[in-house]
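new request in #modeling-help
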Amino acid sequence: MKEKEYSVIGKRVNKVDGLELVTGKAKFAGDLRFPGMLHGYAKRSEIPTGIIKSIDISKALEAPGVHLVFTGENIPGPNLIGILPPFDQTLLAKDRVRYAGESVAFVVAETKNQAKNGASQITLEIEPTKPVLSLDEALDPASPKIHPDGNVTFSRNLIKGDVDLGFAEADVIVEGVYETSYQEHAYIEPEAVCVVPGGDGRITIYASCQSPFHLRGHIAANLGQPASKVRVVQTYTGGSFGGKDDVAVEIGALAALAAVKLGRPVMVNHDREESIIGSNLRHPSRIKYKTGAKKDGTLVAKQVEILLDGGAYASESPFVTMKALIHAAGPYRIPNVHIKSTALYTNKTYSGAFRGFGVPQVTFASESQMDELAAKLGMDPVELRKKNALLPGDSNATGQVFKESVGILDTLQVIEREREKLKEFKGDDHYLYGTGISSMLQGISNGAEGIDVVGASVQMSQDGSVLVGIGLTELGQGSRTVFAQITAEVLGVPLEKVTVKTVDTDSVHDSGPTVASRSTTVGGKAVLTAAEAVKESLVTMAGLMFNSPGAPIVLKDNFAILEASPEARIPLDQVATAAYWTGFPLMNLTFSKAPPSNYDHDTHQGDIYVAYNYGTHLMQIRIDRITGEVTVLRHLACHDVGKVINPKGLEGQVEGGSLIGFGLAHMEKIVHSPEGRIINSNFADYAVPTIKDRIPTEVVSIEKPTSNGPFGAKGVGEPPVAGTASAFANAVSAALGKRVKKLPVTKEDILILLSEREKK
Amino acid sequence: MKEKEYSVIGKRVNKVDGLELVTGKAKFAGDLRFPGMLHGYAKRSEIPTGIIKSIDISKALEAPGVHLVFTGENIPGPNLIGILPPFDQTLLAKDRVRYAGESVAFVVAETKNQAKNGASQITLEIEPTKPVLSLDEALDPASPKIHPDGNVTFSRNLIKGDVDLGFAEADVIVEGVYETSYQEHAYIEPEAVCVVPGGDGRITIYASCQSPFHLRGHIAANLGQPASKVRVVQTYTGGSFGGKDDVAVEIGALAALAAVKLGRPVMVNHDREESIIGSNLRHPSRIKYKTGAKKDGTLVAKQVEILLDGGAYASESPFVTMKALIHAAGPYRIPNVHIKSTALYTNKTYSGAFRGFGVPQVTFASESQMDELAAKLGMDPVELRKKNALLPGDSNATGQVFKESVGILDTLQVIEREREKLKEFKGDDHYLYGTGISSMLQGISNGAEGIDVVGASVQMSQDGSVLVGIGLTELGQGSRTVFAQITAEVLGVPLEKVTVKTVDTDSVHDSGPTVASRSTTVGGKAVLTAAEAVKESLVTMAGLMFNSPGAPIVLKDNFAILEASPEARIPLDQVATAAYWTGFPLMNLTFSKAPPSNYDHDTHQGDIYVAYNYGTHLMQIRIDRITGEVTVLRHLACHDVGKVINPKGLEGQVEGGSLIGFGLAHMEKIVHSPEGRIINSNFADYAVPTIKDRIPTEVVSIEKPTSNGPFGAKGVGEPPVAGTASAFANAVSAALGKRVKKLPVTKEDILILLSEREKK
């Protein structure tokens, strides 16, 4: 079948919001200024856990510039935040604190410095109790209970086939324990909100945020107001990666309470330290894996136990636990699987959503096992993966069968071919060389984890220009550009004629959170549907104008064109104007819902996501034996993305995700003091990849379209994180001749591993 | 049939936005402040017409605080404004000026005073030409042409039956010429806009305005930008009455041009003088009427020639001309009608939309004729009107037949009954007494005059609170309250749970202008439809929750109630939350369109409006023979409104409209100098009714529901103006025993008429 010729889809276009971003014209929440605006600052606990005896705010109230100080006692609503049930997190800690950095009071003053100074005048009397700081301590029945029901946040079992029978059939078994650490989102823009009370009794929250509808609901609840009185407008957002969900709710609610109380705009603008200690991190993990295979490499059984350190509050731990559970078996056909995934409470900054969402952790462990298995079987690692790669029609770990859009084998074939082209290096006294591959899959959409709905609107004006609204946020990932392309393609207008708004909760259906790499697929489908409704009006009108009602009409290049005689063309603005005055709708607001699933939440069997992104990464590295420094010589990221909407945007997503994966695998380490305080809450002490650390990622796309995405497209935001981290770990293991079982494996760790190896 | 019991509809509720208005919390456009905001001021022509020789802005540019000065030469777009074709009005006059007060240059400075001072430094060289200042001058072929095609703005003929045959059959004929004068809208808040350029290349226009979509289109065009780059947000608007349509476009476009050029917010905030000389007024009219009837009072023919003084530009003259044309025959069954309606250009401030929209002018003339005819026939004026009053099934002047909702006879019956209860007064040396009645009709909706579309959205949050969006503006008329009531009724929630936003062009379908008393009827229907879509989700979800899918369910008092067993009830917030998580849409955006019409624009025969409001007014007055002072002793306004949504709001509308009618009939007079300049552009010299002049309007409603309105409701915004003005004129005529042929008939005019009478 010849592929349809697209005008805008698949073209290398610049980000539609690129110009204002690079010229500095784009306003971020922290850039906003309103007359009479005040600044808020949270007083935080310095110890990880203890009973609040008293909070004396009297001196703070008299500090210069201070207008308001309040504590958990003064909140009209339930004083609860948190993304999902269990809503176990206080907005301001009341009876006890559960992590070092938790907010206990809020100070509002003329300037941030005055607010900070005010906060320093608060006398906080907390009686320390014994903190729970590790997974083992959390599991110990003798440890204190962080929450009334104990220290298990969430735990689930996925059971497919009979794993004991499976292992009984296995010729070879490998086992291991793998660990990953914290990771900080480290977006360029720390969290910020600005809340403006309106003259109409409503308030507007301008927020750097990921999920505006979460903000609306939680902020309204804490204000004790109906949600209809709260409007959330997303400002330009300088990255989120999962990080601006919980914390935007927290600072949004605090600022809103103050703004309503004082009748003045209130800004909260985090500095880097607040951003690191006061917002969620990636879940550290300890994962026990056992994989069984036949002699020929056929996988027969996989047993996995995942422990995730969720920190002091649930946040998105339940979803991350699920995501790890569902992805732990990898992109393979395995008849017998038992996976247990558990998140635990500890007295540390809470863990939550972070690009990849549990998948990088399990992929690292799973792909390490695949390499170990290949070694034990004496098989080529690519061959082993190819042998077990899911094919269309196969049943995956949850028993879901995709008849289309399963491109994992294709990615392996690409990587196999590219591996042959790698330069061969021989190690010497100075350098070690290694090549690693990893395969992975990542579910696209919320799927059966929640509800997958998106609202979108497409509005054409009489001049033919188009305004698109959607409930999903642009966080730098380029989704405004994707939505603009989809709209432009459907309506036959150039990209410049399409404007995509940032989210305004007033104007679109609650679309849930912008997570799970679902923007292009689920959001894009919503935009497509809305654009097609407007197209229908234009086509109907043009049919009347051509005096050929119902005749096939193409919208292209700003014209309505009669398909039967393409020289008959009417400019689209004329068609739009006529459609308006004839009474055909030029705006449509769509409510789009993912197809129904039949998922069983007990066994975790059934259809869960609308599609999966599949990928295989290849990485060749060089290790400096003297310094431990790693140079990535080649990195190839090959993903089945369904259909590429914007090659440029896709490359940006894969490069960015890869660098986060590289940071996770090699550089980033949150360090706690023995008492449980984060002690490297700044970019001098916390190493995040900068432009200097950029790895030479090459992007190859496989296009196996899904009918659940617009033009067949699947998301690609998260997958490269897992692929890169795992390929890096496997490459380092190959170079060292020694299995890396813990991430990050930093330069220092490599030197230690090297010296251990040499000792042997 | 027993009437349905409503929870909210028909109840006396306070305005939903009343509290913020009376407490001063509501922000009007002129209250807005943004960092870096500048102020704009227009330099205006002081002479009515002439050729612009030069505009020297050099000194102005150097005046203190001035940032920008521009003229018509500097406008990227077409430099055209105007509501409708012909777009004959320049944004800034370029080659010539056509009225005294026309803007020729725009100055932007730090403060309004600096801008004003800057404007005073502009040297304007205009070579005066002979102005056309009256209808007769405009008609004179020897007069200069104000526009290239001459001095006729718009002219139409309505022809029904054969008027010559009709008069041939008549036993009695009355003839007369009637005149009305200018009227200023005199809203409490003069026009204001504040334009804020965004970091995303879009601009937001915060405007006190009546038709945000007009602003969007015209401002974008003059900026040379696509409409999708312009967002218009209506601020609280302190009255409009038709006046904030053109002028908001004008000042919005000027401020937008400056804001884009300077990259800073720009405010234009008119003072009263600018508001009077620089925005449209009500069309003065001269109307020739001829009415023929049989001896028994049966009307057989009506011939009318209407001349409207449209001023320098078309503005809404075409529509006002049409409206006058269609309504000139009154609410009567007349087989033969010929009406000619013409608007003319003159070199005065342009005339445009004003509450009533041509109907008060023709009603005054028509109802004067009815009284004259009654006198000539020796019939009671009520009897004559009753005899000819339209009944359901009758064909009106445009040949439209309504099978329902024709309540004119009912209003006459009420008035007849009430007239009997009037105290009888005998005139004496000090006082004269008179009673007047008038009947009228007013088309509801844009109808076939244009296109009647409205967009509305209803969004329920998971907590059961509701946000309503609509493309029609709240101008003080109480439509937000009506929309809130409709939504609350449909969704079974208390009124407090419903918030109605002001208009934001980004979030709703282009709904055209807020005119023609169409908000409740056409807008309300859109809100009703959107609310019903949300209701469907709730009812479906509740059916599942009751384990009775499809069973009849009532939404009431915040509960979903199983009709079959009303003790089974689930709180609506629980239903909404469940609906969200099950994937039933909780938001709907509706595009609502009036039923198609079959109107013939040549003969003006056919179906034009979705409904008519019918009314009869009764007024008893006392005239002080010494001072000419008129005291209204009783005023009864009886209208067929279809269904009363909010009795309080309706009373407010009728009282307010009546006072405008009273001002038109008795108090308000724009005075021009012989050169053609308005010389009483302030409230000291232009007498507008104040609270002291309030007349004791009593409101009686007839409810003859229309299926084209929500719950049967018809609009009532405009009709009382015509009813009151005409009843007043007839009452004064009765008291004086002399026909008033010109409005306003002020105290001074009454003294003159009295002295003329006494001279005889």
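bot summary: Chain A is about 30% helix and 25% strand.
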